[in-house]
Amino acid sequence: MMRLDRTELCLIAAAVVLAAGGLIAPGWLVFLLTMAFAKALVVQGVVMQMRAGLVSFGQGLFYCVGGYAVGMGGQFFGLTDLAVLLSAGVLAAMLLAMVLGLLLTRYRDIFFAMLSLAFSMILFGVLVKSPQLGSTDGFNVVSWTLFGWSPAKETAPMALLTVTLVAGLAVALLLHRYVQAGVGVLCEAVRENEVRVEYLGLSPRWLLYSNYVAAAAVSALGGGLTALAAGHIDPEMAYWTTSGEFVFIALLGGTGHVAAPFLAALVFAVVRTYAIEFVPHSWQMILGFTLLGVIVFLPKGLWSLFSRAKAKGAAAS
Amino acid sequence: MNSIYAVLIDGTIYASWLFLVAAGLTVIYGVMRILNMAHGSFYAIGAYAAASMVGWYFNGEGAALPVWGSYLMLVVCALVAGLVVGLVIERGLLRLMYGRDEILMVIITYALLLILEDGMKMVWGVDPYMAFQPYAEMGRSVLGGLKVSNYDLALIAVSLVVGGGLWAWLERTNTGKVLRAVIHDREVAMAMGVNVGLMFTLTFVLGTTLGALAGALTAPAISVAPGLGVEVIVLAFAVVVVGGLGSIEGAAAGALLVGLARAAAVHYAPELELFVIYGVMSLVLAVRPQGLFGRTLVRKI
After folding, report:
1. pLDDT value of position A130
2. What is the pLDDT of residues A114-135, one digit of tens each?
3. Cα(A98)–Cα(A253) distance, integer angstroms
4. Which of A74, A157, B121, B237 has its CA 20 to 30 A from that of B58?
5. Within 13 Å of residue B133, how many CA atoms lie on the same side as its CB?
6. Which pLDDT score is estimated for B296?
7. Are A66 and A219 in contact (CB under 8 A)?
8. Rounded to whole angstroms, how far apart are CA atoms B233 and B37?
9. Where are the domains of chain B?
10. Which tens digits make up the pLDDT trace of B137-167?
11. What's the CATH fold of domain B2-287?
12. CA separation (Å) from A23 to A29, A132, A161, B266?
């Protein structure tokens, strides 16, 4: 029997509470939660690489691949099963990452950021110029089924929230183990000092490569879930501003805890919903100032508020 | 044969535009090691300033004014906008952030981009601006059977002047020499008594002014609308990364390469237009990770 530590138990409890809360929540809140947690999965991919010292300004690439796999699977191959569609997206993203990773792992810092951005923009360029894939408008996603069960129109959003929570929980548990396992710890070592890791007889490039592919898979899962929730996909998913948004959420949450991206994505979604409602032409400005504020005052992200409070409590007792 | 000729002309015009856009970006990176994501916004600010002032110049009381005044207006707008915006941002924000991680600086300028995008919407609204008069007034000429706008040809001349001026300034003047020292080794330059802070301010203002100038000179040829800067910045990145970050001759070479490649794509395979720009970039980086003219950095242990 696998033993669970406190963090894992907390994560499971949070997921159960959210799923139960979803049953009584109004429709808009269910949608907001689903979108926020689906995007949080993409952000997990960014955070995984941030822990290794790489900032991907092109995670929208895998977000888009995941989304388009879901859309195209339904539209062109008649697939409707949610599990099949999502796995197709994850698989496609991993295959793509295996190829691109060979090139990208040679780069660090801004070169990595710019090159990952370029690949994402290439996909954007290809999609915009492909009329059979809907060009700039994209296309709608078919309604999904799960192992032969097709949800009624009223229950579908709720069911999708549950699916997203299950997927999010699974990823969170895996990542929690991942960062404590050898590969996760070594990724941080690569960020601190790559040459020393090499001196230890390890290959930073191979570490970063596996990390990159794993991050792509997680992000594609998020992309697929977003497509199912939104019911529509378009090339904008691969545009660089979308990737910028993921970097923003990643910084907002910080890399300190596996739950941080979920929290940050939720905060982001709520702030965005209200900002667009009340100040439609200045919500980006709010984002910009928030980002500056986070960099200056909370360099470790929102999560450091919790860990700081905990450290204070420990010092007092 | 004719289409190769057309590709060359179109490519050169596009390349000169790309160079104007990318020059400021590469100068700032070369000296300050800041990859400035907000550069596209400086471009857009220049374009907005020029478009609104030229619009004002030709409407209302300025009806009888000569056309040449509008060209002067374009340049003055760019200089004023670049100077003001550059000084405010460098003194007000970036100065406090120096010494941070390169990648963090990228994110800081990304925040700046978000702020400036909405700032422009507040000042100029969301409706597009037109300032076609300077473009239309110049007319067209026939070059070997092809009709080419004189304004576009003048753009080539301007980018040659800007490029040559930058080169001469860096290589032939005293300030340029000091600046090269800062580029080469910031700490040693500081130890030799160079006022690095002043050099940074100077460079940043120069960079923003170049960005605003590119925007102002492009304004007559396009419709100036929100989202302009966001589109331009990734193109400028591609050019600068191809040429090697921080190198002016690199930016020129990168602009030519990308410009010609895009013109060829537009003529022979229009569906590849966007793909080809980043395709060239990935190809160059795969062979030369530091870009065509980039310096390789020694790894620090």
Report:
1. 80
2. 888 888 888 888 888 888 777 7
3. 28
4. B121
5. 22
6. 60
7. yes
8. 7
9. 2-287
10. 777 777 777 777 878 888 888 889 989 998 8
11. ABC transporter involved in vitamin B12 uptake, BtuC (1.10.3470)
12. 11, 39, 10, 53
The number of C-beta contacts closer than 8 angstroms across A and B is 113
Print the domain residue range for A225.
6-239
In a domain, A47, yes or no: yes
Contact A281 B121 (CB under 8 A): yes
List chain B residues with CB under 8 Å of A240: 234
Half-sphere exposure of A56 (CA within 13 A, CB side): 38
CA closest to A196 among chain B residues: B301
Question: Are residues A31 and A167 in contact, defined by beta-carbon separation less than 8 angstroms?
Answer: no
Query: Which DSSP category does A201 fall into?
Result: T
| The predicted structure's pLDDT at residue B300 | 45
Could you say which of A106, A126, A284 has the minimum Cβ distance to residue B289? Answer: A106
Q: What ipTM does the predicted assembly reach?
A: 0.81
Contacts of residue A148, defined as CB under 8 A and 6 or more positions apart, other chains included, come to none
In 3D, which of A6, A3, A24 has the Cα closest to residue A14? A6
Are B251 and B166 spatial neighbours (Cβ–Cβ below 8 Å)?
A: no
Give the DSSP per-residue string, A209-270. HHHHHHHHHHHHHHHHHHHHHHSEE-GGGGSHHHHHHHHHHHHHH-SS-TTHHHHHHHHHHH
Integer Cα distance of A12 and A5 in angstroms = 11
Number of Cα atoms under 13 Å in the Cβ half of residue B94: 28
Neighbours of A55 (CB within 10 A): 21
Closest-CA residue to B234 (of B110, B81, B129): B110
Question: Average of pLDDT values for B121-127?
Answer: 82
- Asked if the Cβ–Cβ distance from B106 to A128 is below 8 Å, we say no
pLDDT at B56 over 80: no
Cβ neighbours of A125 in B, within 8 Å: 273-275, 277-278
State how far the alpha carbon of A168 is from the alpha carbons of A35, A174, A219, in Å. 12, 10, 11
Output DSSP code: residue B97.
G
Number of domains in chain A: 1
- On whether the CB atoms of residues A252 and A294 are closer than 8 A, the answer is yes
Q: How far apart are CA A187 and CA A191, in angstroms?
A: 6
Question: In DSSP terms, which residues pair with B147 in a beta bridge?
Answer: B142
Is residue A231 domain-resident?
yes
**pLDDT value at position B301?**
43
Among A110, A72, A75, residue whose Cα is nearest residue A92:
A72
Q: From CA A34, how far away is CA A49, in angstroms rounded? A: 24
Residue B281 in 3-state DSSP?
A: helix
Cross-chain Cβ contact A244/B121 below 8 Å: no
The pTM of this model reads: 0.84
The DSSP element (H or E) to which A140 belongs, if any, is: strand A139-140
Question: Whose CA is closest to B119, among B55, B24, B49?
Answer: B49
Q: Among candidates B216, B24, B225, which has minimal Cα distance to B109? A: B24
Residues whose CB falls within 8 Å of the CB of residue B257, separated by 6 or more in sequence, listed in order: B242, B280, B284, B292
